[in-house]
Design brief:
Helix content: 55-70%
Radius of gyration: 11 Å
Number of helices: 3
Largest sheet: 2 strands, antiparallel
Order of helices and strands: HEHEH
Structural class: mainly alpha
Shape: globular
Length: 72
Amino acid sequence: MRESLRAKIVAVCTDKIAKKGDSVGLSFYAFFANKNDDPELLMEAAEWWIKTHRLDHFEKAVKIRDMVQAGL
């Protein structure tokens, strides 16, 4: 996964956790605007989430942030 996407995921997760607490969940769509302005990046996130790690549609932001920071 490209570094810019990793940084964005960590920032979004950290923000959501700060606002809603450790139990907040999210999907990979949380990292993108409602417009599909970068389909390659969206597919990169989707592949990491669905194909590589077989995650559920909604996961805890803490789990995702920790996975990305660990380089998974």
